[in-house]
Specification:
Layout lengths: L6 E6 L6 H13 L2 E7 L10 H12 L5 E6 L3 H7 L4 E5 L3 H17 L4 E5 L10 H9 L10 H10 L1
Length: 161
């Protein structure tokens, strides 16, 4: 990879991927040469959807974005960055509590590899309230989440339920 080529990693559990995630992905895809949406296995979080299902949803949601790839991972994020030859992590910030958590994670990653930079993007106002946990809560009550997730993801969720 040449020095001018910028590949970034956008990690998350994406349980499921939402319009808020897509907002960050689309904006990152305009800023960088390549965006890798890194779907964390995160079995300790007890996700609603399996790792394979979350990867499938992310791939479906990102299918029209030519410089976006989706990959699953189950190791430390810093190690995944090394495997993908990337020194940049993208994270979204919606609230002050997000900032505190993300700042800690950014510092932890920097302690493991000081060359890795974390860049934070704020979602657009329309997407600021959307989170995977809100979508999961809505789904647990058998209510439509179609307005919160990409249409391709909503279709997969309907097929899985």
């Amino acid at each position: 990879m040449s020095k001018s080529f910028k590949r970034v990693i956008y990690p998350g559990t994406f349980d499921p991927i939402t319009n808020g995630h897509m907002d960050i992905i689309k904006r990152a895809s305009h800023l960088f040469d390549e965006v890798i949406v890194a779907v964390a296995k995160s079995s300790e979080k007890g996700p609603m959807f399996s790792h394979d299902q979350r990867i499938e949803m992310a791939k479906a949601a990102c299918s029209d974005l030519k410089n976006v790839k989706v990959k699953g991972f189950s190791n430390l994020l810093v190690k995944f960055c090394h495997q993908m030859d990337s020194k940049i992590i993208i994270r979204g910030l919606r609230t002050g509590s997000d900032f505190e958590y993300e700042l800690q994670m950014g510092y932890a990653n920097a302690s493991l590899d000081p060359e890795i930079e974390t860049i934070y993007l704020m979602p657009t106002l329309e997407c600021a309230f959307i989170s995977s946990s809100i979508v999961r809560a809505i789904l647990k009550h058998d209510t439509s989440c179609a307005h919160l997730v990409p249409p391709q993801v909503y279709q997969i969720i309907k097929e899985l339920r």
